[in-house]
Amino acid sequence: MNIVVCVKYVPDATADRKFEDDNTVDRVGVDGLLSELDEYAVEQALQFREKREGEEITVTVLTVGPEKAVDAVRKALQMGADSGVHVVDDAIAGSDYLGTSLVLAKAIEKIKADAGVDLVLCGMASTDASGSVVPAMLAERLGLPQVTLASVVESQGDQVRIKRDNEGSTEVIGATLPIVLSVTDQSGEARYPSFKGIMAAKKKPLETWSLTNLGLDADQVGLSVAYTQVEDTEARPPRTAGEIVTDEDGSGAGALVDFLASKKFI
Amino acid sequence: MSEVLVVIDHADGEVKKPTYELLTIAKRLGEPSAVFFGSPEQGDAVAEKVKKYGAAKVYVVDDAPIKGFLVAPKAEALQQLAEKSSPAAILLPSTFENKEVAARLAIKIGSGLITDAVDVAEGGVTTQSVFAGNFTVQAKVTTGTPIITVKPNSAAPEESEGAGTVEAFAATISDAAKGAQIVATQPRQSTGRPELTEAAIVVSGGRGTGGNFEPVEGFADSIGAAVGASRAAVDSGWMPHAFQVGQTGKTVSPQLYVANGISGAIQHRAGMQTSKTIVAVNKDPEAPIFELVDFGVVGDLHTVLPAATEKVKERKG
């Protein structure tokens, strides 16, 4: 069985994230890393392999992004994935959801043509755009069922069952492989790379593909053909410092209620 | 005037407030046509409600062949409806499910998608709040039919009588769309409190509660608020995930947000930073949450909140 985990290299949320002059996300000038939420997807792929002892299961990590995005693949290899694919091409920069999902889908199809793909795993969202739409787009493009936002994943044979929290209910979803599966941060803490894992990762296969490898032309992706256009980005003005009081002998409650009343919340 | 499709947010025929917000926004873009995925028997009652907010048409899509499966059937139905009505835009309430429906639909009809808009102006320019609320982005769809998911509290619902003509729409659902089956579903018990994402006031608790949410819930009830929790509180098993505010939970943008025993990590801020007024109670004067607040109390929530609850009750008499 072959699992492809899609991961994203994102600007560090604790760094000073910003936009370029053309209103695209600055992905080079800000420190980046493997999106925290994609670590859970890598973890589930590894657990899938560990739980199904005796089966031959390979985990391939796939990312689309600038040169430095290879770091996200390396981290996943250190965690225990078997091989990596990094799609990098200047023409991809500025792609929106449709462009990004097209490149990912073509890459998955290429992996499938070589080795077969039974499961595509994704995190629940990226920590930069937070759209949560690429897994569904991949499912649509690949013609697969989507089983998304799983907090618990179980599988047997070609059957997958997940549990998830929906808006007003808890659901159990069932599907037959191949599928696109996304998992939340409730699905299980992601492991840290061990020293052994870090050393082993250096010898694992890591391929670099361009658009040409995927049979795509530069004019099919990127900022110029994006289906959406960002017209303006603006830093939100910092919140003006508020009043802070220290609770002494119960004074805090009175001050709090007075404040809320002054703002007509009571 | 072109139709604008608005997907109705409802629970078993009970229309939710974001629907009226979306209809209000839709009027800026064209003539609202509400889309009801539900039981045809509830169609007329739903139409009565949405026509008050300007729905000229109400498409009733029988969800019997749809509701047992995830996302894909709804996207097929909307594709067929879009082909029939050639809408100027398609608006959906920004839930996880609707975002995925919108995602599949965008690929199907070759249209641009904008998610989590907090406003949509005439001409279709959207406003989004990104990077944990630190940036505001103006964008628009430039190819195809704009598909926009809109967050709750993005507009004040404005009443205006629409025709509300009910039209049954028969969608054809392919077998391929039925690959992910809902095997079991367990509705969460209602807390009797306002819905977290729609509430005007949210009172939430974090690690500092030590697992005792009574002071938080008591204070929330005294001011008619929804209750939320930080990821630390959810990970500790003190509150269900459905109450989590933050990057991987709900994003809220209420008039008032009261954070209790919450330090204010970036992941939490991502879920609440656009709240109009922010108040915090925390024992640690160095907690980053105090950088955001309009008003803060350095103190123990276990004593401050019960006392504040009493004072609110006194004021209300």
Automatic annotation (TrEMBL), chain A:
Protein family (similarity comment): Belongs to the ETF beta-subunit/FixA family.
InterPro entries: ETF_a/b_N, ETF_b, ETF_beta_N, Rossmann-like_a/b/a_fold
GO (cellular component) term, any one: cytosol
Keyword NADP attributed: no
Subunit structure: Heterodimer of an alpha and a beta subunit.
UniProt protein name: Electron transfer flavoprotein subunit beta
CDD domains the record matches: ETF_beta
Organism: Nocardioides glacieisoli
Single Gene Ontology MF annotation: electron transfer activity
Residue stretches making up the Electron transfer flavoprotein alpha/beta-subunit N-terminal domain: 22-218
UniProt KW keywords: Electron transport, Transport
Superkingdom assignment: Bacteria
Cofactor(s), by name: FAD
Function per UniProt: The electron transfer flavoprotein serves as a specific electron acceptor for other dehydrogenases. It transfers the electrons to the main respiratory chain via ETF-ubiquinone oxidoreductase (ETF dehydrogenase).
UniProtKB/TrEMBL annotation, chain B:
Single biological process term from Gene Ontology: fatty acid beta-oxidation using acyl-CoA dehydrogenase
Protein role: The electron transfer flavoprotein serves as a specific electron acceptor for other dehydrogenases. It transfers the electrons to the main respiratory chain via ETF-ubiquinone oxidoreductase (ETF dehydrogenase).
Necessary cofactors: FAD
Entry annotated with the keyword Flavoprotein: yes
Superkingdom: Bacteria
Subunit architecture: Heterodimer of an alpha and a beta subunit.
Record PANTHER family: ELECTRON TRANSFER FLAVOPROTEIN ALPHA (PTHR43153), ELECTRON TRANSFER FLAVOPROTEIN SUBUNIT ALPHA, MITOCHONDRIAL (PTHR43153:SF1)
Cofactor note: Binds 1 FAD per dimer.
Residue numbers binding FAD: 207, 230-231, 244-248, 261-268, 282
InterPro entries listed in its UniProt record: DHS-like_NAD/FAD-binding_dom, ETF_a/b_N, ETF_a/FixB, ETF_alpha_N, ETF_asu_C, ETF_asu_C_CS, Rossmann-like_a/b/a_fold
Protein name, as recorded: Electron transfer flavoprotein subunit alpha/FixB family protein
GO molecular function: electron transfer activity; flavin adenine dinucleotide binding
Domain called Electron transfer flavoprotein alpha/beta-subunit N-terminal: residue spans: 4-186
Source organism of this protein record: Nocardioides glacieisoli
